[in-house]
């Protein structure tokens, strides 16, 4: 199969590309800068802008060739020509930031990819979304995926991804089958999003447990997330038009997840608790201050983050397993063992 993957340099993206290459697929990756991934063709451009010129490369070790003044629209069309499928992982992922930055990538970038894929006759489109598109701050206990609702979710990231997911699923039809997959709290060795942020905050004395920290949440080990996305590619006909949450299906308390990440990373410190109401109020205020000052670093708390830490969110996986013909292969215990081994090796290197 000939597959175009956006966002291939992310943790999930690299694992997805690796699986596609291992089974013999022809992979083209698209991102703003060269990926350094062996065995792929590359197109470097910014999907957030239709006017920037871009470059094309045949892979690592080669010089980028001039795009001859072509726009992003032109290069997207070239990248998708004769492709069987697109896996769209590229996104702005952050707990803070300006709305226009989220809008440019998560909404307009998605719309640009969808429209180009339709024009180029791409048959399958896997849109990678997030469960936060349907999380309005209330607990989700054994819940179905739910409809993306940009009017009820909190935070620019969740709202922009909700709109992007609706754009993608609206394009589902006979000519192009579209499925939206929502990996939930992905983690694993080499993770610079969740794991690194938790560890950095703990070392700086800024990691807080919100409320009792006994709310149950589900997570997804990286290998399972990548396998599920590839399964979504293979089962697009059956899953077309659906939004499906991906997780390990092993809910644990927020406190346990936090502590086990820290222990695996060689950190053994007590964590402080802050009342949920205080955290949500403080997060709302801090979020406004960060936006007013146009700060680019992560704030210590936002309303969205406080709600995620204070409420349960785990999901019924039966429909996901059935439609994707997939089951997670790495349990949470093995995942933490792998994480600890990786962190130990990193500290010894």
UniProtKB/TrEMBL annotation:
Sequence ranges assigned to domain NAD-dependent epimerase/dehydratase in this UniProt record: 3-246
Gene3D superfamilies: NAD(P)-binding Rossmann-like Domain
Region described as Disordered: 51-70
SUPFAM superfamilies attached to this UniProt entry: NAD(P)-binding Rossmann-fold domains
The keyword Isomerase is annotated on this UniProt entry: yes
Keywords carried by this UniProt record: Isomerase
Gene Ontology molecular-function annotations: isomerase activity
Domain of life: Bacteria
Protein name: 3 beta-hydroxysteroid dehydrogenase/Delta 5-->4-isomerase
Lineage, top ranks: Bacteria, Pseudomonadati, Pseudomonadota, Gammaproteobacteria, Chromatiales
């Amino acid at each position: 199969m000939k597959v175009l993957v956006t966002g291939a340099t992310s943790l999930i993206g690299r694992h997805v590309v690796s699986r596609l290459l291992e089974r013999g697929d022809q992979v083209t990756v698209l991102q703003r800068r060269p990926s350094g991934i062996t065995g792929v063709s590359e197109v470097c451009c910014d999907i957030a802008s239709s006017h920037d010129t871009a470059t094309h490369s045949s892979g690592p070790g080669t010089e980028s060739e001039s795009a001859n003044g072509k726009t992003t629209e032109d290069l997207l069309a070239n990248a998708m020509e004769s492709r069987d499928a697109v896996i769209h992982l590229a996104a702005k992922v952050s707990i803070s930031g300006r709305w226009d930055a989220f809008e440019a990538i998560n909404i307009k970038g998605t719309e640009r990819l969808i429209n180009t894929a339709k024009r180029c006759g791409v048959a399958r489109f896997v849109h990678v979304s997030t469960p936060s598109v349907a999380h309005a701050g209330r607990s989700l206990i054994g819940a179905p995926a739910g409809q993306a609702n940009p009017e009820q979710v909190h935070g620019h990231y969740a709202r922009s991804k909700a709109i992007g997911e609706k754009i993608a699923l609206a394009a589902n039809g006979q000519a192009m089958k579209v499925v939206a997959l929502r990996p939930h709290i992905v983690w694993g060795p080499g993770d610079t999003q969740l794991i690194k942020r938790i560890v950095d905050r703990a070392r700086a004395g800024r990691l807080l447990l919100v409320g009792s920290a006994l709310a149950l949440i589900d997570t997804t080990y990286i290998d399972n997330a990548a396998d599920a996305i590839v399964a979504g590619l293979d089962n697009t006909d059956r899953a077309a038009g659906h939004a499906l949450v991906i997780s390990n299906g092993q809910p644990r308390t927020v406190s346990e997840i936090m502590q086990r990440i820290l222990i695996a990373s060689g950190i053994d410190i007590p964590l402080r608790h802050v009342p949920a109401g205080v955290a949500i109020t403080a997060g709302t205020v801090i979020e406004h201050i960060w936006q007013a000052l146009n700060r680019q670093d992560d704030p210590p708390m936002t309303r969205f983050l406080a709600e995620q830490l204070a409420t349960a969110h785990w999901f019924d996986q039966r429909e996901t397993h059935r439609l994707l013909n997939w089951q997670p292969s790495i349990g949470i215990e093995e995942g933490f063992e792998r994480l600890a081994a990786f962190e130990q090796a990193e500290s010894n290197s």
